[in-house]
Amino acid sequence: MTTTVQLRTVDRVLIATIGNPPVNALNQATRQGLKEAIEAFQNDRNLAALVITGSERFFSAGADITEFTRAAQPPSIAGLIEMIEKSDRPVIAAVSGRALGGGLELALGCHLRVGTPSSRYALPESRLGLLPGVGGTQRLPRLIGPVEALKAVVSGDEIPAPRALELGLIDQIAQDDLIATAVTVGMGAKAGPPRAGAPLTVSAQTREAFDAEAARLLRRHRGQDAIEACVQAVRAALDGPLEAGLALERELFAKLEKGAQSRAMRHMFFAERRVGKLPASQRVPQRPASTAAVVGGGMMGRGIAMSLLDAGLQVTLIDVDETAAAKAVETIDRQYQRAIDKGALDAGQKTRRLQALSTAVDIAATAEADVVIEAVTESMAVKEKIFQQLGRHARAGAVLASNTSTLDLNRIAAASGRPGDVVGMHFFSPAHIMRLVEVIRGADTSLQTLDRALELVRRMKKIGVVVGVCDGFVGNRMIGKRSQQVDRLLLDGALPRQIDEAFTRFGFPMGPLAVNDMAGLDVAQAVRQSRGQVFPVADAICALGRYGQKTQAGYYRYEPGSRKPVDDPQITALIERVSAGQGVERREISEEEILDRTLLPVINEGFRVLKEGMACHADDIDVILVHGYGWPRWTGGPMFHAEQIGLRALCDKMQKLAETLDDPAFEPATLLRALADEGLSVRELSRRDLPA
Ligand code: 3H9
């Protein structure tokens, strides 16, 4: 017997416990252990039932994703399920913690399922660009109906035990001892014949609901191969017998597993887990922060305070006067109430979080905090003053973080007089929802401070990526490279809708012009003016007082109270006038040209960022662009995408654009050119360790 599955007997029931930490992934050794457990059960006719269970946190997180790139080794999960289904005595899944992916599919293959009250169930394969590959798309609809099954398979969302019971996904919730309950269930159950594999019989109404849901999901996830496959496979449960559905599911899984989208999404899965951790040699053991102060109760400050409260810290929110502080608390209260209304929080949690929140108007109140996060207006003078005060008031060794998105962190750090304690924490808006935090390492930030900031980000269930000090840090610096090109494309012949649709078809949730309208065109104009940049189209639109959604007019127009961009003939005419004024003869612009001219400069800048050491690894950049800027996950982020294009091909394409458009912005970065010349991968080259 392998050590990943332990056997014991309770009464006449064999208990097989999966023990493959950390998440009970079903790797080859575990599958072998389960096979041997089922065989032991089959061979001992004295046994009345077999119970398969896992650890307290994980029944199983599913197939071992690291095995996907290797040739499959027997036994398969499908083979195990087949053995279970053929058993003439019952096999029961006893689920504590989570049953995910292939782990849930194994449980669905059992005759009965018993869960703890806090157990959770999900088929998250679509998040890896896959579909459940061992029966999930066939057995789940037969248990809970096709519409709920489709939602679960496409979203990958976790279903909590009470809802799972309601849906019929599990048969019982064990109120006390899970194993004792499963044993009782096992002793009393009959295995019954293997599930009749007939197609699901559903009413015309259910079929109609299924078709409507399928159409909605396909629209929402346009361009994602895995979602199409999920819909196709679940539909097969309605149309044909189990065996045919399983065969189709297997075929779709094999195709997706080899496909570019799944490779990209698996890359993202591991990149997200790799970033934001210092190597063990650079970590400094320290007490986790328990108290925090947030300076500034504006939108960012409130979002940061909520994230800290959610992570279980005591938080002091400091604002200019009592009225402003009280208003901030009121808004936080309302946000938590909204979360309760949506079922994402319970009343007890809200009370505990609000009890952990206090307010102050004097910065001296930061004296007790383990970590202080400044989130005031983006002005160097204001931030310098606050950090001077923090230098005096904050206790020794406290982490002093600035939420700056543009300013020179080294100057802010110098103002404190203790730059080793200062770090940047660039949150994205809305801060209590967005997971990305650029953790900015200043010239003097100590490794201890950096480590504490990263640990705090993890506790907030966010993803921290270490970046260096430069204009715009990594994300804004890279994405900024597309703005100038967008303006030039408008001059050359493109229109806002055409550019935005090219982006949404590529997979961004919104195009750059709709984003600009949402953020406010005056904001970008102020930045351009401070840098002496001229964008003829954007400047002409701002000159009309059209600042985007807030003035109901920008690149698009907006009906009162609506955020839906409507094409505006006035803007078309204006753009045409500006082109003429600049002596540009407008021409037809293809979608490919739009994407090349806007995305390749962004990717190119990524190579500069790496060369300068502003990010340590290509993964860091991919995570930042996907989580902070809507870069489609299924392309793996800009650096992974660059390797899919091929660095040589990318370099040549850029060189050609630089010549035809006579624009130095397309000159390939030195690092890109060097890697392409030497046939090297950007991933191998990137450094993981930070310079000490
Ligand atoms: C599948 O089942 C396909 C089948 O339908 C068909 C098969 C033929 N495999 O996230 P964490 C590692 S596809 C291998 O930091 P958490 C992870 O890399 C699978 N490794 O912890 C990390 O390693 P490290 C369907 C895995 O508590 C460590 O475990 N299942 C796997 O925040 C801890 O992970 C999924 O898609 C895995 N399946 O979250 C579930 N899962 O320490 C994917 C995790 O070296 N997993 N690891 O960095 C998750 O969603 C989260 O990891 C989980 C734990 C919720 C499980």
Question: Would you give an account of this structure?
Answer:
The protein is of the alpha/beta class. It is built from 30 helices and 18 strands. The strands form three sheets. Strands 13-12-11-14-15-16-17-18 form an eight-stranded mixed beta sheet, with helices on both faces. A six-stranded mixed beta sheet has the order 1-2-3-5-7-10, with helices on both faces. Strands 4-6-8-9 form a four-stranded mixed beta sheet. Strand 2 (13-18), helix 1 and strand 3 (49-53) form a beta-alpha-beta unit. The two termini are 46 Å apart. The structure holds (S)-3-Hydroxyhexanoyl-CoA. Residues 22-23, 25, 61-66, 77, 100-102, 105, 124-125, 128, 132-134, 136, 273 line the site of (S)-3-Hydroxyhexanoyl-CoA (3H9).
**What is the alpha-carbon Rg in Å?**
28 Å
Q: What is the rounded distance between the termini?
A: 46 Å
Unique bound compounds: (S)-3-Hydroxyhexanoyl-CoA
Name the structural class: alpha/beta
Helix content: 40-55%
Low-confidence stretches: 688-692
Mean pLDDT: 94
- Lateral arrangement of strands in the main beta sheet: 13-12-11-14-15-16-17-18
Q: How many strands appear in the DSSP assignment?
A: 18
The oligomerization state is: single chain
Strand composition percent? 5-15%
Q: Can you tell me the overall shape? A: globular
* Number of separate helices: 30
Largest sheet: 8 strands, mixed
